[in-house]
Amino acid sequence: MAKKDEVIFLFDVDGTLTEPRKVITPDMLAFMNDLKTKVTVGLVGGSDFSKICEQMEGEDTIKNYEYVFAENGLVAYKAGELIGKENLVHFMGEEKVQKFINHSLQLMSTISLPAKRGTFVEFRNGMLNICPVGRSCTREERNQFSELDQKEHIRQKMVENFKKNFSEDEWAFVIGGQISIDVFPTGWDKRYCLRYVENQFKTIVFIGDKTYKGGNDHEIFDDSRTIGYTTDGPETTKKLVAEALAKV
Ligand code: M1P
């Protein structure tokens, strides 16, 4: 099959190409390399660049994919070159950012959990990542929190609290992974990355796992510029790619 230059496939990373917070398998890597001979391939993760590298191919990730969009595309690379970087504080102002951080720390101080570790607020380029168990938790503590969250909806309740206290015209709160909430200015969701590709490609396929309302893949999945697919992990992603390739 000749490479279709007018088609790009964009993939969420965590839960789509890899199991949650795990490294891509050699088999999946080979699958992606083969796909790159057929269409242009890009990654669009909610995580920051270093976490995407940890899960994919290290620093080589930016060389190995035509587009790499970290933090929803708020940090963007094309063919290994940085082409865009947003700055949360420049956009929102120090006062609003601090007000949000203070509120979230106060809220988290009222929540008791089986384990609490460090880094409850991770400050990124274009977003904040709020994590009640603390990002320095072990994998076991991560899984323990995730199980509890599925029963008690801890993060969903936090999101509801944020929505009551902060305007949704200014801030968006989305559940991206297992233990945290991504917070960024409204509109800076994964649709943000489409500005870099919408005029270059006729067809944009997007595959992600958190495509339900409130998940961090929802907006890009639902956007009229993309053909969206919902996966539940790497094996399903492979099947969806075959399905999508047959249609483009
Ligand atoms: O799946 C993408 C998410 O990955 C991490 O989520 P968690 O640590 O909660 O499993 C975070 O990097 C998050 O920002 C990101 O959206």
Structural class: alpha/beta
Strand content: 15-25%
Count of discrete domains: 2
CATH topology (level 3) name of the largest domain:
Rossmann fold
Small-molecule binders here are: 1-O-phosphono-alpha-D-mannopyranose
The CATH homology group name of the largest domain: HAD superfamily/HAD-like
The top-level CATH class of the largest domain is: Alpha Beta
In spatial order, strands of the major sheet run 5-4-3-2-1-10-11
Number of helices: 9
Biggest β-sheet, characterized? 7 strands, mixed
The average pLDDT score comes to 96
CATH architecture descriptor name of the largest domain: 3-Layer(aba) Sandwich
Shape: globular
Distance between the termini: 12 Å
| Order of secondary-structure elements | EHEHHEEEHHEEHHEEEHEH
How many distinct beta strands? Answer: 11
* Backbone CA Rg: 18 Å
Give the uncertain stretches in residue-range form: none
Structure description:
- This protein is an alpha/beta fold.
- It has 2 domains: 4-86 and 188-245, 3-Layer(aba) Sandwich (Rossmann fold); 88-185, Eukaryotic phosphomannomutase, cap domain (Hypothetical Protein, Haloacid Dehalogenase-like Hydrolase, Chain: A, domain 2), CATH 3.30.1240.20.
- Helix content is 35%, strand content 21%.
- Strand 10 (203-208), helix 8 and strand 11 form a beta-alpha-beta unit.
- The longest helix has 15 residues, at 94-108.
- The model has no long low-confidence stretch (mean pLDDT 96).
- Bound molecules: 1-O-phosphono-alpha-D-mannopyranose (M1P).
- 1-O-phosphono-alpha-D-mannopyranose (M1P) binds next to loops.
